[in-house]
Amino acid sequence: MNEALRKKMQPHEIEWRIQNSRNNKTIVVPYINNRAVMERFDEAFNPSGWKNEFERWGNGSGVKCGLSVMCDGEWITKYDGADETNIEPTKGGFSDSMKRAAVQWGLGRDLYDYPRVMIEGEHKYIPDWAHDMLNKLVEAFIGGKLGDRKVIILKEK
Fold it and tell me: What is the pLDDT of residues 89-104, one digit of tens each?
């Protein structure tokens, strides 16, 4: 696999999303952002060395993305899909399916190795004070400074 796809995701390439919020804790999880997919594939294969294709699948609300890479004069494609999202349904479905297809190529697989991250309190949105802490958490993860920690709880200072 290409080195540009293997290197760990950087803070600016990650979006944190709330998975659930209850019992005075908000669990957040890291996701790759679609811009990072395009930038990493450009870096790995140059802009003309890869392409994406989309099609509807499932009950019509799903989008399947094929991410293809030119390899020895032949296009090699890996697929994944996603349903439309609640926010910007069409765009979200296309974006999510492309991010999922990128994981098939190895991009962002390190995000599955993160510890469970909780923010103290129940939140509808990630609080402003937590964003800097999440970026520092990513940097610590990249630097191997988290050890084998399974859970991290962020608290407002």
Answer: 566 678 899 999 999 9
Q: Which fold is adopted by the domain 3-154?
A: Enolase-like; domain 1 (3.30.390)
Upper half-sphere CA count for residue 132 (Cβ side, 13 Å): 5
Euclidean distance between CA atoms 55 and 40, whole angstroms: 23
What's 110's DSSP letter? Answer: G
How do beta strands 151-154 and 116-120 pair? parallel
Domain boundaries, the chain: 3-154
DSSP 111: G
| Residue of 85, 90, 129, 100 whose CA lies nearest to 37 | 100
